[in-house]
Amino acid sequence: MSEREETAVSFDVVVVGNGSLGLSLGVVLARRGVRVAVLGQPHRPGAASSAAGAMIGTFGEVTETLLASEYGRTKLNWAYQASKLWPEWLDSLSPDTDGGELLTADGTVVMLNSVGLPEIDTANYRAIRRALGEYGEHFEDVDPEEIDWLDPEPTARPLQAMFLPNEHAVNATELLIRLDQAFTAAGGTYLPHEAATVTRDGDRVTGVTLSDGTALVADQVVLAAGAATQTVLDTLPDQAAVIPRLISGYGVSALVDTVDGTTAKSVIRTPNRAFACGLHVVPRGAGQVYVGATNVISPDPRSTALVSDVLFLMDCGVRQVRRNLGRSPFRKLQVGNRPVALDGMPLLGETGVVGLWMMTGTYRDGLTLSPLLAREMATQLLGGTPGIDLNLFAPVRRPIQPFSRADIVNTTVTHMMATGYETNWMLPAELPLTIEHYLRLAYTRIADEFDPEFTPPPELLAASRIHLSIAQSLRDYYAAGRAVAAV
Questions:
Q1: What are the residue boundaries of the structural domains of the chain, listed by start?
Q2: Which of 230, 221, 223, 231 is nearest to 200 (CA)?
Q3: Exposed end of the chain (fewer CB within 10 Å): N or C?
Q4: Element (H or E) spanning 196, and its range?
Q5: CA nearest 264: which of 295, 245, 285, 293?
Q6: Which residues of 135-161 are buried (b: 16+ CB within 10 A; e: fewer)?
Q7: FAD dependent oxidoreductase domain spans which residues (predicted)?
């Protein structure tokens, strides 16, 4: 045994990542008596959790595409189960209260306005209503003119709206503080460092080495660092080659002090839109709101906001929600990086190295799913049988592709066109049809060049034209997947 191994700190489980998923898993494990360490810098640079609107929403996120595949319906069902766990989860994180003070919104208003494309906005609005009906979940149609605090410009006025009384939002900053406190109170060890490498002995994990050189010994290591997970996974090239690579769904959000000191009572949002979450304004206490809408695929996590994305975000908020937001001061601009796997699906479960697990790739659903995934992953780590089928999203897998190439290309083209309409472009009426035609030809050619069978999700197909590194990662992943399948 080497001197480093003799002096190494030992745990049962090391969780790499201190966002909502990693910390939630740490809390559950610590409460079950496991010697567990959670790693991560306290200020969580670029993490999705820190910049999130933290809408605890199941149905507000529903899209027509989500309902059209087994994988999408599985994610919807998981989100529904998770939503039922949140009241008890918040209560458990708040020793002196029931956790209700962490809620910042009383329900959610989903509005269908005149800004987007009917193929996306109207279709997704109808999909939300359909899913609510299927689950027997209560909602109310409301008159858009009677929505409290809503004051859009006339050309962006809502056509329809519904109120979802059971879809709330939490204060993400305070939630992470409570998770920190609950983890240490349960006996967990928090280490304010990043993991530099995963260590292994043959086909079995042995621990991690921290960025300061400290060695941690553990029989189980869970990679749950969001978009930053890929850097750690790359220290095991054989695993990185056969697991869908993680890239970033970079987003910008803004905390705004309203000029008139008022705030919305409920979340006000649109259905999900082109390659992104819908525009959403979330109350954050007296005289303050959170504004979010952006999702831009990036090869690597970003730490700063682009001017173009800030302009787009605030133009949407001002035009579509409340005109006087344009005269309101910024409190803070935030940047977050959602973890997006190359096939768009979560990475949940054990890798090809015994004892090395992944809990990431959840895209926009990580915070919402955190109580459920923490419970089920903890059960599996401890040798039990989870109540949900995590194997559906096992990290080592053939690329998941729920739809045909033609369907994916059509969706990509529609969403690309929608980005133009959302930015209020002014074109002759016939020109969009020409643009759409040539986009379809271009994306079909790009998809055909990637692989004869596999096609990336629409947002990645679009991003691969801009980012050559994403295109190369897709080609490498498809080739590796075929090599594994041939063995």
A1: 3-49+173-245+344-393, 103-166+247-341, 405-486
A2: 221
A3: C
A4: strand 195-201
A5: 285
A6: eebebeebebeebebbebeeebbbeeb
A7: 12-378
Pick the CATH number of 103-166+247-341 from 2.130.10.120, 3.30.9.10, 3.40.50.460, 3.40.50.1100: 3.30.9.10
pLDDT digits (tens, 9 = 90+) for 176-197: 999 999 999 999 999 999 999 9
Taking only the tens place, the pLDDT of each residue in 65-88 is 999 999 999 999 999 999 999 999
Q: Which tokens is 147 given? A: 């929505």
Q: Supply the DSSP symbol for 390.
A: G
With tokens 């069902």, the residue in question is 77
Encoded tokens for 373: 């995934």
Q: How far apart are CA 218 and CA 301, in angstroms?
A: 28
Tokens 């890798």 correspond to what residue? Answer: 351
Q: Assess contact for 111 and 269: CB atoms under 8 A.
A: yes
Spacing of C-alpha 216 from chain mean position: 29
Tell me the two tokens of residue 375: 């419970």
Following DSSP, what letter does each residue of 235-292 receive, concatenated? TSHHHHHHSPPEEEEEEEEEEEE-TTS---SSEEEPPPBTTBPPPEEEE-STTEEEEE
Tokens of 341: 């796997």
Read off the pLDDT band of 218 (50, 70, 90): very high
Question: What is the CATH architecture assignment of 3-49+173-245+344-393?
Answer: 3-Layer(bba) Sandwich (3.50)
